[in-house]
Design brief:
The complex is a heterodimer. Chain A is mainly alpha-helical. Chain A has two domains: 58 residues, no CATH class; 214 residues, MetI-like fold, CATH 1.10.3720.10. Helix content of chain A is 73%, strand content 0%. Chain A has 13 helices and no strands. The longest helix of chain A is centred in the N-terminal third of the chain and has 39 residues. Chain A is flat, with a radius of gyration of 24 Å. Chain B is mostly helical. Chain B has a domain of 199 residues: MetI-like fold, CATH 1.10.3720.10. Chain B is 73% helix and 0% strand. Chain B has 14 helices and no strands. Classes of the chains: A mainly alpha, B mainly alpha.
Chain lengths: 298, 303
């Protein structure tokens, strides 16, 4: 019941109740809560704040001691050169991430439908076996996967990442869709069955039209996790610059030798984070739904 | 007529579902279970350098070798320190966030989205900020947090952060706590808000204090949430890689199993040993996660 979960989180309790005259103790607690929330806000926002203010001070404008302060004037000098280095890897990332997310969503929706509404003998057990795949450390499959990629002839191409994210995304995408479809009333499907509709037709005409929010959730989940992924990228591309993606290119820029160029590094980090941040800003609710669905219980 | 009937029967038979998911079943069987088996085979082989194609059986040699390898025990110890601080810290701060928000407060949506945004950013990117914040230079040369403490005349708070010899893993847990707290908050918020209001009201009418309501009524209801949170945090902690790589790369003081495995595979090309380390991580996770999955599976079936 993932949709209910999100509603639960985002439903603010009836605030009007708080409006009733608070006594002294009540007022104290309200002030206390705001102070605590603000402190947590400062801590949570600090790392991104630093990134943003230091990205507009130019390449050499970042003095160590003033890095907490906003710039005296805006200088986008670091953006041009950094973007020049990051443009190609980011385009490459977008290319493979879009493919892997779309395939993942289709696969997840088919699987989710079966595990939620068209169970067969042993399907719960198989689903549990799928779920285990969500928890495994990818180190435990990395070497055979590299060999598979060579054997399949996709070694050295960006498709290694498409394959990795689609396959290892099966458990989570199936889980998200299964939880999503579980909320659809069985009567809807029973009625269609009585009318003689088969599985494929029920899926196509009843389930799919109801699936758009589920697709959004899985698409942005897979988009965010593949965009931010570093482990698969560095293992499967071996750090080859020809196959650099957003995170590996960024790691190359900010890597050990260049740690002193803070203006540059912060700008590069910010540029790489912009796509996922935008998705989060505009589709945060769906992102939250993915997170909660991915937690199994509920 | 007979034909259409049999066709209908075939399509609506429950086995249709099996064929629908068969491609995924094969993929998971091969790429998850098959490849784990393959890694296990590597970990039991003699393939210990780049030139060797020697896949002969070596028994448990690679595993017993790990126990005598000071780098492995060091990385393992680091991982345990990190795990304790990370799990406890994240649980606590996520719980505090949810307690501050759960009754509803003006501006809740704003706070919630700020607390959760770290989940949307890659650690390679955030590592840049955290590396700067946790720079070990002090006093007048200080940057980041040390600089901030110096300015506030709190010099005793300055420290070496992730470069320190003893406390490196505790410092490394800070960005991890920062990233995951919002997630834990969301899980707890969902938990709190799933508890019917009547329960609280009834307790209030009976004269229970707010503290007692949380202690005796709300927290016991949240047991499944606690369990989920511990499992999620625990398995993430065992696998921690980009967080540490993004801040300190392969630095010795912050080495954990995943970083060491990466080094063994890429720098030393020792497939057998790297696989053995991967199997160790896998087994630790499996010991905790498999019983959990069985439990979830059982409660599912009861529904």
């Amino acid at each position: 019941m993932s949709s209910d979960l999100v509603d639960r989180v985002t439903q603010s309790k009836d605030i009007s109740r708080n409006k009733k005259k608070l006594d002294g103790v009540g007022q104290f607690w309200l002030v206390f809560r705001y102070i605590a929330l603000t402190i947590l806000f400062v801590i949570a926002a600090l790392p991104i704040y630093i990134m943003v203010v230091n990205s507009v001070k130019g390449i050499t404008g970042v003095t160590q001691s003033a890095a907490f302060l906003p710039p005296s004037h805006l200088n986008f000098g670091a953006w041009g050169p950094t973007w020049k280095v990051l443009r190609e890897p980011m385009q490459r990332t977008l290319f493979f991430v879009l493919q892997s997310s779309i395939i993942s969503a289709i696969v997840g929706s088919i699987n989710g439908f079966v595990f939620a509404k068209w169970k067969f003998k042993g399907s719960t057990f198989i689903f549990t076996l799928f779920l285990f795949g969500m928890f495994i450390p990818y180190q435990a499959i990395m070497i055979p996967l590299t060999q598979f990629n060579h054997w399949a002839g996709i070694g050295g191409t960006i498709y290694v990442l498409v394959v990795a994210h689609v396959i290892y995304g099966i458990p989570i995408c199936t889980l998200i869709f299964r939880n999503y479809y579980a909320a659809i009333p069985n009567e809807l499907i029973e009625a269609a069955r009585v009318d003689g509709a088969g599985m494929v037709r029920i899926f196509r005409t009843i389930i799919l039209p109801l699936s758009i929010p589920g697709f959004v959730v899985v698409l942005i989940w897979q988009f965010t996790s593949a965009w931010n992924d570093f482990l698969f990228a560095i293992f499967l591309t071996g750090g080859s610059p020809k196959l650099a993606v957003a995170t590996t290119a960024l790691n190359f820029i900010t890597g050990s030798g260049n740690q002193v160029y803070y203006g540059n590094n912060m700008t590069a980090s910010l540029i790489v984070s912009i796509p996922t941040l935008l998705v989060y800003m505009f589709l945060g609710r769906y992102f939250l739904r993915g997170l909660l669905s991915g937690s199994l219980k509920g | 007529m007979a034909l259409t009937l049999s066709r209908k029967k075939r399509i609506s038979s429950p086995w249709g579902g099996f064929f629908f998911v068969l491609p995924s079943i094969i993929a998971v069987a091969v790429f998850v279970y098959g490849m784990i088996g393959w890694t296990l085979k590597f970990s039991l082989s003699n393939r210990t350098n780049a030139w060797s194609k020697d896949n002969s059986f070596a028994g448990l040699k690679n595993f017993t070798g790990l126990l005598e390898d000071p780098e492995f025990t060091h990385a393992f110890g680091n991982l345990m320190k990190f795990t304790v601080v990370f799990m406890f810290g994240t649980l606590l701060s996520g719980l505090i966030m949810s307690l501050l928000l759960e009754k509803g407060i003006r501006g809740e949506g704003f706070f919630r989205s700020i607390y959760l945004y770290p989940m949307a950013i890659s650690f390679i990117a955030m590592g840049t900020s955290w590396r700067w914040l946790m720079d070990s230079a002090r006093d007048d040369k200080g940057t980041g947090l040390n600089h901030l403490f110096h300015m506030a005349h709190l010099n005793f708070l300055q420290n070496d952060w992730y470069s320190s010899e003893k406390a490196s893993m505790y410092a490394m847990a800070l960005p991890a706590i920062w990233q995951m707290s919002g997630y834990v908050m969301a899980l707890f918020l969902a938990g709190f808000r799933g508890i019917p209001d009547d329960l609280r009201e009834a307790a209030r009418v009976d004269g229970a204090t707010e503290f007692k309501i949380y202690r005796h009524i709300l927290f016991p209801q949240l047991k499944p949430t606690f369990l989920t949170v511990l499992i999620i945090l625990g398995h993430i902690s065992m696998k921690v890689f980009d967080l540490i790589y993004g801040i300190a790369t392969k630095s010795y003081v912050t080495k954990v199993l995943a970083i060491y495995m990466w080094q063994v595979i890429f720098d030393f090309q020792n497939y057998a040993k790297g696989s053995a380390i991967a199997m160790v991580i896998l087994v630790i996770i499996a010991v905790v996660v498999i019983p959990y999955l069985i439990y979830v599976n059982k409660t599912e079936e009861m529904k």
